[in-house]
Structure formats: C-alpha cells, structure tokens
Amino acid sequence: MDNRFSARSSPQHGSSLVLASLGRRGEKNKDYLKYKIGVSGSAKDNCAPGAFKKAYEVGREVARQGAILVNGATTGIPQKAAEGAKHANGLVIGISPAVSKKEHLRKYKLPIDYCDLIMYTGMDYAGRNFLFIRSTDATIYICGRIGTLNEFTIAFEDNKPIGILTNTGGTTEEIADLLRVAKRGKGKIVWDDEPKRLVEKVIEMIRENENHH
C-alpha cells in the first residue's frame, strides 16, 4: 500500500501543523512527541570525500536517537541521510516542491526512495525550502549548494537549532565566514565533524530550546 500523501500548506499556517501529528503517540503528554530533525545538503556531489558516508551516519543516528528525519524529498546528501534512517528503522518525511507524485517524478525528476511520507507542497523549490525548515525542530547541514544555504538562512532567521557537519565541503564550509561578515550573532549553532556527536548536540539543543519557551 502506498502511504505517501499529498497535502497543500499555506505559509501562514506552515506545514508544522501537519507534521506535528505525525510524531504524536498521545495527546495528553508532550513528551510523547518525537523531535523532527531536518537534513539539508547537496542534491549533487560537490562534497568532500566521505561526506555521503557521514550523511548516512547522520540519518542512522537521527533514527537511533528516537527522532524523525525530515528532508526535501530529493537526491544526494538528503537521500543518503534518509537511507541511513530507514536502515535503522526510522521514520522519514519528505517535503516536495511538486504538487503531486506525478509532478514530483516527471517534472522535478525527484526520488521517492526511503521516504515513508511525502508532502507535496506545490510551491516549487523556494516555497518548499521555507515549509521544510518550518516543519522541523532543528536542521543539520551537510556539504551544500545554494539551496542548502537558503535553507540555512531561513533556519537562522527563525532562531532554530542548527547543526553543521564540518569538513564535508560545499557551502557549509563558508557559513562561519558568512556569520562573521553579516554581524548578526552566532545563532543557535553547534559544529562537529562526527555524526553521532552532532546529532546528540542537536537533540540537546532542541531540549534546551523547549525549556526556554
């Protein structure tokens, strides 16, 4: 049975309203909610050697540590992270730029592999990126190109917890310099070159973020 679904979300409400229920086991206790951790990264290989292996390990750790992995329902680094999560019996949600499964496959030529659910936003890449970030409790960045940088700036402006997997190449290697010249502060960012430690740091930061709200 195909359990992927199509849902249209508006920026006013965001897709987080839809995705919050996917991590819910009970209504009375918020501790039953699973954390939703996004993985953002290059859809093509412009990365440092070993980046894809580390992306797989990040996905596996997200699942092992009890969180849901969310990605852009795309190729490359996000797909590799999803593969790692699925091999650890995790749940993966994809946020597509397409309006339907048909458009996702034919127009955008994007995969459906390793996703348990795909939300078809119909908002192209810019709208997808916004809804993707708004649907997460935190996001991890690995390697990256322009789209990854766009998703990073959305998360930074939203003051969301952010994890940077260092030494993976791409635009993520420029983030420290961008923050320095932008003079907007350090944000809620943790850095590490080891996937397990990075996921642990991100989850701890989500918990701290919850305690301050």
Automatic annotation (TrEMBL):
Biased composition (Polar residues): 1-15
Any Pfam family hit: LDcluster4
GO CC term, one of those recorded: cytosol
Positions of the UniProt region annotated as Disordered: 1-21
Gene3D superfamilies hit by this protein: 3.40.50.450
Protein name: Uncharacterized protein
